[in-house]
Design a protein that fits this description.
The protein has about 280 residues and is an alpha/beta fold. The chain contains eleven helices and eight strands. Helix 6 links the parallel strand 5 and strand 6. It binds 6-hydroxymethylpterin-diphosphate.
Length: about 280
């Protein structure tokens, strides 16, 4: 499964088929779907619905990272995500990624069948690189300035794209030094994580500069406030059209994975995109 996913990531990065990652938040407080899927059976059936809509990956998270969110205790996080991962893995072949920054949660999730690790903290927790180095699964390294509780307090960069490229390059070097294959590493600029509206849109406009680092790039803007602010939509559920447009632009700039709540809409948009791109598969 892991190798298969790695191969698909390679193809996605070569722009043959961008992958759609569906969001499955098993949390009481996520900004868009908090509390909807805290019950494991509901979370599993939501995940299977997203799989039915064409998700290529299902991203299971047990800790909200929205601005201002409080950290979650490790045991609570494990209790939230493990039954959901087990339930999904026993019901579908669509690979699961685990959205966590905690090394022990990474280990337990992969042992339960997760086929990818997605870390919004860029593997900066003590022991995180060591935990994933010994696994045979792809890993997404995301950039975040500061931590969720304070990250939106006046974030500053000298050049947002250059600074993030430097950060991601440094994290890749740390992973490579720990023996990880280049092919396993996915990069993500972390839209909304310690960025102003201007930073976020500059990142989207110049996403190709991060794609040029030579790793598959994941873009996650789904329903985020950068879109709500731009379009004057307070309710995250009203940001679907803006989300689809933003992710399509990210794909156009070379993104290999889009992380979205609204899988069916994204899959349709990508069908249109694929019908008009030169690469046939
Ligand atoms: N965004 C969120 C969570 N995980 N992972 C990656 N790689 N990239 C992202 O942009 C990203 C992510 C935040 O969105 P969501 O999961 O919907 O909200 P919350 O953190 O409140 O659960």
């Amino acid at each position: 499964m892991a190798r298969n996913l790695q191969q698909r990531l390679k193809e996605a990065a070569a722009h043959q088929r961008p992958l759609v990652m569906g969001v499955v938040n098993v949390t009481p407080d996520s900004f868009s779907d908090g509390g909807l899927f805290l019950d494991p059976a509901r979370a599993v059936s939501h995940a299977l619905a997203l799989a039915g809509q064409g998700a290529d990956l299902l991203d299971v998270g047990g800790e909200s990272t929205r601005p201002g969110a409080d950290p979650v205790d490790q045991n609570d996080e494990l209790e939230r995500v493990l039954p959901v991962i087990e339930g999904i893995v026993s019901a579908t072949d669509v690979p699961v990624s685990i959205d966590t920054s905690k090394p022990d949660v990474m280990r337990a999730a992969v042992a339960a069948g997760a086929a990818m690790v997605n870390d919004v903290n860029g593997l900066r927790a003590e022991g995180a690189i060591e935990a994933v180095a010994g696994m045979d699964v792809p890993v997404c390294i995301m950039h975040m300035l500061g931590e969720p509780r304070t990250m939106q307090h006046d974030p500053r960069y000298s050049d947002v794209v250059g600074d993030i490229a430097d950060f991601l390059g440094e994290r890749v070097a740390a992973c490579r030094a720990a023996g990880m294959d280049k092919d396993r590493i996915v990069l993500d600029p972390g839209f909304g994580f310690g960025k102003t509206l201007a930073h976020n849109f500059e990142l989207l406009r110049r996403l190709d500069e991060l794609v040029a680092l030579g790793h598959p790039v994941l873009a996650g803007m789904s329903r985020k406030s950068m879109l709500g602010t731009l379009c004057g939509r307070d309710n995250p559920a009203d940001r679907v059209a803006a989300s689809v447009a933003a992710h399509l632009l990210a794909v156009q700039k070379g993104a290999a994975i889009v992380r979205v709540h609204d899988v069916a809409e994204m899959v349709d948009a990508l069908a249109v995109w694929r019908a008009t791109t030169a690469i046939e598969d």
